[in-house]
């Protein structure tokens, strides 16, 4: 079993990282993919500590759409920063999380789009998968992935909260769909219906920790060990045993990220 998206380099894990890793391994995790904000020195330092403690872990590096406003004058600089950090990070296996977020007004839409395009082009150049964040921006996200990705960029729509149309668009692009603890929430019936329609050979599971803890941990810090709850829910939705979900989503992770 693999947590395909978490933020173990976040400062909220600094004081008990070793214990978090121990609990993750005890829950059956083989590894995680930890997401880093490109250019964040503190996260980079904690990521080095993480990989020293758990060598199987892998990293993804990119400029999040919330930070796109820092590159208003030179959107291509976001890709340059990501490129430089990936080059000096042996455990890096992906570019992200990148994408578009129109829910919050952290950066103008046109700037977000240019920063996103620059990083998709970089992923194509480096032959790296992308980890996509999209919120209230589905059409523009898919269009940029299709146009700039040129049909060769592979990746995952992380923490999926969209409907069947976005899921189909992602699958048509050859992308994987990653399910988080949100599918365990009582009010997520429509999302669970969408999850039933996504084949398991295109599914990943994640925590997005420290966010989105599943029941019975709601209201507390999420951590990779809790991805087991996501696997249990996905198994129930597909009518199969939990070990099969763990095995198949781990195989999908290896196919995408080539860890």
Describe the structure.
This protein is of the alpha/beta class and 259 residues long. Helices cover 42% and strands 17% of the residues. The protein has an 8-stranded parallel beta sheet with strand order 1-2-3-4-5-6-7-8. The model has no long low-confidence stretch (mean pLDDT 97).
Please outline the helices and strands.
Blueprint: E1 2-6, H1 17-26, E2 31-37, H2 41-53, E3 58-62, H3 76-87, E4 92-101, H4 109-126, E5 130-135, H5 138-149, E6 155-157, H6 164-172, E7 176-179, H7 189-196, E8 203-205, H8 227-238, H9 242-257
Parallel strand pairs: 1-2, 2-3, 3-4, 4-5, 5-6, 6-7, 7-8
Helix pairs in contact: 3-4, 4-5, 8-9
Keywords, separated by commas or semicolons:
259 residues; alpha/beta; TIM Barrel; eight-stranded parallel beta sheet; 8 strands; 17% strand
